[in-house]
Amino acid sequence: MIIKRNININGDGKTSRDFCYVENVVQANLLAATSASEDALNQIYNVAVGDRNDLNFLFRVIKTELKKHNINYNKEPIYKDFREGDVRHSQADISKIKKFLEYAPEYNLEAGIKKSIAWYILDVENKK
């Protein structure tokens, strides 16, 4: 979207995921590494937000954030066929990591995009 390319979305855009900003993953790893709880040791945890957002929403959030940086993306997404075998909706169960590590994700999808969008813009500009 930064370089004005067409954006393809597989399906109708209503497919949803539990998008997780990387700083949530860092937070979870730090909690795991510093936990004093014996119950928390040697566990496998889902790290996510515990929420779902669809691809249409993701598209709109990115478009809105780009506009705040004076990048106007005026195209609509191009909807393609659904991908064979793709899961329609997914959302992580983060109850275990909340219980054992007191994990509370700091960033939802919108906050993660807001925090990272300037980096993506700069990265594209540096590659020109």
Structural commentary:
The chain is mainly alpha-helical. It has one domain: UDP-galactose 4-epimerase, domain 1, CATH 3.90.25. It has four helices and four strands. The chain has a two-stranded parallel ribbon. The longest helix has 18 residues. The protein is globular. 13% of the residues are buried.
Give the topology, please.
Elements: E1 8-10, E2 16-17, H1 22-34, E3 53-54, H2 55-68, E4 78-80, H3 95-101, H4 109-126
Task: Tell me the name of the CATH class.
Answer: Alpha Beta
- The ordered string of helix (H) and strand (E) elements is EEHEHEHH
CATH topology: UDP-galactose 4-epimerase, domain 1
Assigned CATH superfamily:
UDP-galactose 4-epimerase, domain 1
Tell me roughly what share of residues is in helical segments: 40-55%
Strand numbers in spatial order across the main sheet: 1-4
Q: Quick one: biggest sheet?
A: 2 strands, parallel
Low-confidence stretches: none
Rounded to the nearest angstrom, the distance between the terminal CA atoms is 15 Å
Q: Characterize the overall form.
A: globular
> If helices are DSSP runs of H or I spanning 4 or more residues, what is the number of helices?
4
The overall average pLDDT, rounded, is: 97
Strand percentage:
5-15%
Query: Which value, in Å, is the CA radius of gyration?
Result: 17 Å
Structural class: mainly alpha
Report the CATH architecture: Alpha-Beta Complex
Number of strands: 4
Q: Number of domains in the coordinates?
A: 1
